[in-house]
Amino acid sequence: MKKPTVVSLFAGAGGMDLGFKQAGFDIVWANDFDKDCVITYRKNLGNHIVLGDIKDVKSEDIPNNPDVVIGGFPCQGFSINNKKRSMEDERNHLYKEMLRIIKDKQPKYFVAENVKGILSLEKGKVIELIVNDFKKIGYDVDYQLLTASDFGVPQNRQRVFIIGNRIGKENPYPEITHYNPNLKKNQQMTLDNPNLKPYVTAKEVLSHLANRRISYDPQKNGKGYIYNHIARTNVADTFWGRKYKVNQHDICDYLKEARNKSEWSTQKIDEYFGYRHTAGHWFRKDNNSGSIPNPEDWWELKKLLKFDDKYDKAVTTLEEKTITFEQSLRIANWDTPSDTITATGTEIHPNKKRRISVREAAILQTFPDNFIFEGALGSMYKQIGNAVPVFLAKLVAREIKKNL
Ligand SMILES: C[S@@+](CC[C@H](N)C(=O)[O-])C[C@H]1O[C@@H](n2cnc3c(N)ncnc32)[C@H](O)[C@@H]1O
What we know:
binds S-adenosylmethionine
């Protein structure tokens, strides 16, 4: 039987593409304008990727009638209310390229992946605009925020998946398979669904590499090889931290008082910011989970709760500070899924004096061991940090395949 076909935009190193391939799709055409991404992609997925800016690619140069178009369009600097931007500029938004190609190629389904932040951009107007644009060209559209660890990926990465179809079917999302055993309230979830398994931890998937030396050469490992087990070793770094000491309990009391006087509930504040639970932490005096709003949120919160200037300076004045390995704010977790692997490769290994290696980052993103990254060290970290976890992409792809 002929495999359903995929056209892949903004393909990067190919995390999402590999997931679709593993689910039984044939990727017939892909594009990215980053040279290293394209070299990695060709090595692992094939020569069907075209190097170049998508804005320069004519629709007629892309294969007709793909079953699915996929792509994680960048959305940096997206603004719809900014009066200074002309309509001309607005057309430069990259999702419009995806829209153009979907309109011209009429795939049955499309999947667009994006960062969680897209939901709160312009207080939700950006996602609304994007969804409406896809609806206007004839698609039923849904979106969901998926947490990779809920699906057995050893990483707490959250990504928005916008799925659309024009064949009158449902937009299917995979069912969660894993739960956080450290959260008591999740015990109820496991009672309701006894098949849920505990989260996969970083330790489970990385411990075999912890004592391996870092090396540019592939290292023999039983019958196979370990590739790309290389890492930055400078663990000292800088970060922007508060200049003045502030006591979270004091801020919490202060914010609670302002909230109680206002018409805002914690839940409404979370909705306003487009967060899930963050606002809850501002109003909680618990050393483990209470938190002080970051400066940007502080100013926004001030508009809602109209509090005075008492803590403005203390909360919002930042300075660049040095962090060392021991103090690092970004030590990857060991006994839980890891924090989100970012494109800058800053994550520090939980018990080694080095960054996590390219291979370790790839494992946390569920790339298989034989997927080899090309380019300079920083570029490899970036390719991995930008990717959709392969396994999560595979689950999404599998659901779509059932509907085709
Ligand atoms: C978030 S990454 C996609 C990652 C990919 N989905 C994966 O799973 O590996 C976005 C990609 O868009 C590419 N990109 C950004 N602007 C582009 C443009 N104008 N034309 C082509 N590619 C572009 C970047 O080089 C980057 O690799």
